[in-house]
Design brief:
By secondary structure, the protein is α/β, with parallel strands linked by helices. About 30% of the residues lie in helices and about 15% in strands. It contains 10 helices and 14 strands. The chain has a 5-stranded parallel β-sheet, sandwiched between helices. The longest helix is centred in the middle third of the chain and has 20 residues. The relative contact order is 0.12. The N terminus is likely disordered. Bound molecules: zinc ion. The site of zinc ion has 7 residues, from loops.
């Protein structure tokens, strides 16, 4: 595609803005591919990626065109834009599976297709891998070695080939979500595997590396945050996140989850960790009110950033839980987060029903309105 045609194609997909950190639009260069495209061909959406070095977005109109970057010529006037919402996604996150397992690639592929269809104006970003240094702020070195050992961790958490790299990419996506949030943008990490059950030394509950904790420590130690809050509304208690951040006075962790349920923790609050165990089949309004209360407790902590373990398995028809939330409740969570006025970095955790795309879309639309 010529540069002229590309510029025309991009018209109407850019939202000029003056109140957010600004970046220059650059055009794709097919001869310098360094990131892969990530769209189903039939949707032919705009493909967008962010080049950290150039601090610039790059577009391609065709899924067949490899994304690359080139510097804007110095005599070209910069074009400024601000995407409505960025989805951080890499199709390689769909490359591992086990036939019996509910944490399956279709969770992402269905959502990708649906979001592309409903929101062709949303930008898409390919994540990087988390570095070893970033991961070792949270996990023990022996844990990384264990991820390379081809032995199942437990019946829920099988070994998959290259699972270490998949988990590093999900953690890298969470970090990218933080970096964009702190630049005044909104980005959702649509990746797998999930992470909030993983402790510093153990993979469990479909989780291998604790992406939300890795992103939180990146925010604290690299990105200049003094305090961060973590909201976990996945139907399961984020036991790994709690274990990692407990006692850290720069982090407040709030979790609203079904109890009794896997993993059986999160029955009481302690120190910087606040838990709201919700009995199975509780009225949805009671559950949602607990989420609102938890978010209030985060806001009063005055965090520089709110990370969100966004799990959608408290949905009434989720096959793994016995909760009663509907899409409108996840939309409320998104709206309440927006109304805090704080930078927010949400990442996908659980959610196993076939309506997962609708639930994610409801949450993101309300958050980004
Ligand atoms: Zn869950």
């Amino acid at each position: 595609m010529s540069e002229f045609r590309l510029e025309r194609a991009n018209k109407g997909r850019e939202r000029r803005c003056t109140d957010a950190p600004q970046v220059d639009t650059v055009l794709p260069s097919a001869d310098t591919p360094n990131r892969r495209t990530a769209f189903p061909r039939h949707l032919n959406p705009l493909v967008c990626a962010f080049d950290r070095k150039a601090r610039a977005y790059c577009f391609s109109q065709s899924p067949r065109t490899p994304i690359g970057f080139h510097e804007r010529r110095h005599d070209e006037p910069p074009t400024r834009f601000c995407p409505m919402l960025t989805i951080i996604f890499d199709e390689s996150a769909t490359a591992f599976s086990a036939d019996y397992h509910p944490e399956r690639p279709a969770r992402l592929t269905m959502t990708q297709t649906y979001l592309c269809d409903q929101h062709p104006d949303w930008a898409w970003l390919l994540p990087r891998l988390a570095s070893e240094e970033e991961v070792l702020r949270v996990h023990r070195p022996e844990h990384l070695e264990r991820l390379r050992l081809p032995v199942d961790f437990d019946p829920d958490t099988p070994f998959y080939p290259e699972i270490e790299e998949h988990a590093l990419r999900a953690a890298g996506a969470a970090i990218e979500s933080v970096d964009l949030a702190l630049r005044g943008q909104q980005a959702f990490s649509l990746m797998r595997p999930p992470g909030h059950h993983a402790t510093s030394t153990r993979a469990m509950g479909f989780c291998y590396l604790n992406s939300i904790a890795i992103a939180a420590f990146h925010a604290l130690e690299e990105a200049g945050c003094e305090r961060v809050g973590i909201l976990d509304f996945d139907a399961h208690h984020g036991n790994g996140t709690e274990a990692i951040v407990f006692g850290n006075n720069r982090v407040r962790f709030v979790s609203i989850h079904q109890h009794p349920c896997y993993p059986g923790t999160g029955t009481a609050s302690r120190g910087n960790v606040l838990n709201w165990p919700i009995p199975p089949r509780s009225p949805a309004e009671r559950h949602a009110a607990a989420v609102h209360q938890a978010l209030d407790r985060l806001v009063e902590f005055r965090p520089d950033l709110v990370l969100v373990s966004a799990g959608f398995d408290a949905y009434v028809r989720d096959p793994l839980t016995e909760m009663t939330l509907e899409a409108e409740h996840f939309a409320s969570f998104g709206r309440w987060l927006r109304e805090t006025g704080l930078p927010v970095a949400p990442i996908l955790e659980g959610g196993y029903s076939n309506e997962l795309p609708i639930l994610i879309e409801a949450f993101l639309t309300a958050w980004s309105d």
